[in-house]
Write a structure and sequence with these properties.
By secondary structure, this protein is an all-alpha fold. A hairpin with a 5-residue loop joins β3 and β4. α1 packs parallel to α4, α10 runs parallel beside α21 and α15 packs antiparallel against α16. Pfam families: LHD_TRPY1, YVC1_C. This is Calcium activated cation channel.
Length: 607
Amino acid sequence: MMDASGLLAHSDDHASMMSVQSIHPNPDTMSKLVRRLKALTLALLPVEVSPDRLEDPTSRVITHQVVSSYIAAAGDLIEALPYCLLRARKEFMWEAGHNPADYGENLGRAIACEVLARRVIHLAPPDKMHAMMSSRFRHREVDGDESERLSAIEIAIDSHCTIFLSSSEAQDVVNDLWCGRLVQKHDTEHGIEFVPSKHEGYDGFWSHLSTSRLSVPRYQNIFRIIVWLLFLFIYSQAVREPLDKIDPNYTDFDKWEVVMYVMGLAFAFEDIQKILKLLIFVSWRAIGFWNIVSLCIDALLMTAFCLRVAGISSSGPGNYNLRLKSFQCLSFVAPLIWMKVIPIFDGYKFVGTMQICIARMLQESGIFFCLLALLGVGFLQGLYALDAADGQGDRPAEVVHVLIQALLQAPNYDRFEIRWNVATVVILLNILISLFSSAYDDVVEDAAAEYLAYFADKAVGMIRAPDQFLYPAPFNLIEIVVGPFEYVVHPRTYATINKYVMGTIFFIPLAVIALYEAELDPSKNKWVKNWLSHSDQGFEDDPEAQDPEPDDEDAANGLRISRVPFKELISVFPDTTQSSEAVILGEVRDLKNQIEELKKLLLEKNR
């Protein structure tokens, strides 16, 4: 158990955390606090410590007293403490990567900072937890510039802090962002703050009928799923156009092609706008795997469209060739389009974890192809030398073709009178398998934390780029018409224009959202909540669950369940909040105090 001084320190810190107000310190002050926390961590971990010992909830290193010391070290900047700890973690990781000799020490310090940030959030009172997680701060960078404004939850996502993001407190904030209980508040500098929704606490249908609810990640996700499934259907019809046309000389756009290319243009505008806003207002680290996939889809669709237009504009054989190339390019989009169906089901842990594995494997493929490029140069030169040994050399394209076939495990080395199958299999294939295996093990080993970190990235990523009036694709083409009014009318007038335009276009989705939030949301509707939840869920602290009594008939027969009170039953349980070493040390400390008291009594008696 925690000693009296530690318990008192914990109580004082808890009280100070409750009394502190929302603050916005300048970047220099934040940098000073980060340096102080780094100095504390260096004093805490002067030598290398195993990460498992730091992550253990009953760790002898990161104790309640240590957490209290870090809370006290923040002074009046308690709300900024998680952000600064995660910032210190990021700097320790940078030092670990640039100083291999001290990699183990700095890795342990980075993990300690992340664990401490999680413990601090755990001790925060409920009314301050959201502010500590979502308040955005700046710090002074090494080159003297101010950093971008980030919150603790955002810097944890950018740094892939699975320990921090897998905590129940972090997931509570992520779920509030996902469900719209925390929303964006835009300032004059194109920045955003996460604040409680003004719709919370109101139960009427009309109070929830607002165009701002379209920006809630949960509703964005549902809307984009429906639009993407519709796009898949349209794409499937468009690629059949060469088969469905009886007249092969018919060259105009098919109706399915027109709709497909219009939607493709809308997706391209949306993806480019999102990436530009992330680069300008957030960081390039916020660009994820699916952003790259989307850009590839947009590029292929636009290429197919340009070839199609060029084919329609030309005549003669060029018309047919360009039309053929356009549909060939369009066919390349199919794997990527169907790949983006995966996020539809990433709410399920298994699919989400497999999605993370695939993304990690594709990242490892980059390492593989870097090695392949070096080996490929050597193989290409060797094959060319074998081909030229007889004094006759074939075209270099044929040598390159043989090399590509070898990579695909279908080599034909007969012309070179030598077989390199073993070399290509061992060097090329097994390297890729080992990289994929390591990526899979890294993810599956801590699958729950990896998935929670991915879900946090998904939820926050939908609202990080500042967009006060959200027009989901393909309706963002309408925003191209409305957007210029921002520069010629008053901001309030511009907001009114968007309100009426969005209210007209999205009335049906907005009405469904308002109906759900007002009547069917499990957090507000008791019947729906009881239907979706387990009958015993949430009764752990209920006195009737701890000391139940039989029904009237059994009670009349003298039957009792709680003959031994609940408190008496748990009095013999071990204290699992502390390690066995800490319990032993506490008992030794108590024994020493008793011995000291006994010595004092003996001395007084001898006098």
